[in-house]
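In keeping with the milestone schedule agreed at the kick-off meeting, the structural modelling team has produced records for the first pair of proteins. Each record is given below as a sequence line and a structure-token line. The laboratory manager (R.T.) confirmed that both were archived under the project's standard naming scheme.
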Amino acid sequence: MAFSHAIGAMKELYLENARDAFALCYLYAGPVRQALPLLRSALEDALYLDKRREKALSGQEGFLWAVQEACNEFYEKDPFGRKKYKKHKKDTGDSVTLPFFLTDSLRAVLKLHGVYRAPLYLVLAREYTPEEAARILDTSPRRVEALIQKALKKLKFSREKAAQALSVLRLEEEDAARIWQRVEEAAAQPDFEKKHRSRRIWRGLDQAVPYLALAIVVLGIAAYLGVGQGWFTGEAYTPTAPQEALESSSGPAATGDLTVYVPEEGGFAEYVVHDTPYRPEDVLRQMVYLGGAPAGVSLLSSSQESLSAVWELSEEASSLAGEEGERTLQAMAATIGGYYGDSLEELSLRCQGEELTVNGKTAQDFLGGQLTVTRTGETDYRE
């Protein structure tokens, strides 16, 4: 195997930098059931791919650069972390108990767009210089600092608070060693290179699908215009009789986990609703079922342009009033903000043609704010 000579040196680099390697994977993959497979995949890529192997063996910064490349590929494919795993998936040997808890501050960082997470961790929590972080992230020191400042503004955190939230990320030494043992066992298999090559091919196809879809759309538009304008026949097409427009039917929406916030005494309950269709009407339906929106309210219309979204709610939403109504509006803003993710900076909830206002506050006032989570729960989607 072309990489066999590098296994010893790669192991040494990994064990010296296992904490940072795991932290980067956790920041981009979230749950441990995704972070650990991502870490293994990053290490296997660093062994198998010539460019990454050469860069990784150059030292600490090169090794973490190779891990970050794998994290970027993972995030580009699944930026919302919606990949689903079977509940009773067979144990792969990667299961560990992490020596830290998912705090509210850490959860807030994980809700940021992926581009902000690594700079925050490397510079604030691990005290890399902007120049060192820039070499790991393959960018400029100025951009690293700009990303940190913008992230802190979004979080409304001080540098110290962000550093404290991220400094807990680590992996026990015995767990780190066990992950490497799994990598070595995989690399020793005769079909390792074949499997890895196949995985890279499928990954490339996944990345090419959006471009292929765009090409098909462009060809379809060109064909439509070509027939309509007579590009192919020299005569423009003219229908002989009016034709009724056919209603287009859309396929089933993509599904995944939705976080719904519900006001309760002392704070807010956080529910994860599994298998939720990613449509505004289904999101609002789950909010109403769980108590995170007024009873009986429905969605009349919704629109999203650039970084803003507007939801027109039925008249039941006008029942929100007082402190309880204000906290419900706060929960609604948090749930809808989480649904859209980092692609939302302006939120308008309207009722009867006017902005929904409770105690002088609107959904925009609560968007991006931090909630005190008093308990968590899980449930399945309900029609």
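The second protein of the pair:
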Amino acid sequence: MSSTFSSDAAEAYRNGWTVTGTVAGTEQAIEVLTPADRSVDGLGRGEQWPTRIVVSKWEIALQSHLGTRRHGTVTRLPPVANQLEPETLTMPAPRVTLLLACLLIPMMFGSVTAQENWPRFRGVDANSAVADDPRLPDTWNKTTNVKWKAEIPGSGWGSPIVWGDRVFVSSVHSDADYEKPKAGLYLGRGRPVPPDTIHHWMVYCLSLKTGKLIWKHETHSGKPKMPRHPKSSYAAETPTTDGKRLYVLFGDLGLYCYDLGGKLLWTHAIAPRKTQFGYGAAASPVVEGGQVIYVYDNHESSYIEALDGATGKSRWKVKRDEKSTWATPFVWNHAGGTEIVVAGRKENRAYSPDGDLSVAF
């Protein structure tokens, strides 16, 4: 016996997907539940989803709202723990390292120009677009078509940025043995307490042509004040530069300004706040109108703040009615002016360069 099923409108709205497919078994009733961990959103983001079934095994064919077909089985596990165990539902992890290699390689083949700078998260216009170049390799691995490699201790989820002939990147490492991130789906809610080891918050400057270290600076050392989820890092933000100064944000520690030669110009302390599951902060800073702007959405007191790029003094700070989010502000230049657009859980908001709320939707 078989029957057709689909998620209802409310479930589709919450999860951002709809599912249709067929079920073959000795009973007609099956229910694919909302993932218990709200950090997992949508079908296809993980490896298992809880179900309610009354038979030993089902054969299932699913089709997502994107049109992707997946197949799998549902097996009953005593006493009532049932899991949808797909054969091909696992989504590949983002190829961050691969993307960065694509961005850096064209700059290495020729002279560096202003158009080839990569000054912030997602590039010049924050759209990750780069011009095509026939000299780019279309295949590579750890040894083939690699210009250079540089060892950066610790971990950091932020992207490298490029200005002129220099590459800038941040990282945090511990005096204890380095813990590799967990692979695959992880439904744990993070660690309850911070690690009891000394950590080092670092900034590195490398040669674009050779990968050799030009300078490095330790912004802070000590024991972290907040725990961190095994899938996250204390250095999750991408630095940014205006070509004169380098701005490095460690979201629950502070914002640090350097000249491009590595001299520390100013610091701005940030009070650490509780975040969902201990993920920490991850929104990268942006530069606009002589200001460096960052967002710190958390579970205690969320806000957006603009600092004077030259001095580090606060120009404005606006509270946000949001819980933990990780969206980097987008600088939108349009016919009517410039707005700082920030996505949120409750609302998407646009702010003027002076901090006034332009629109929320």
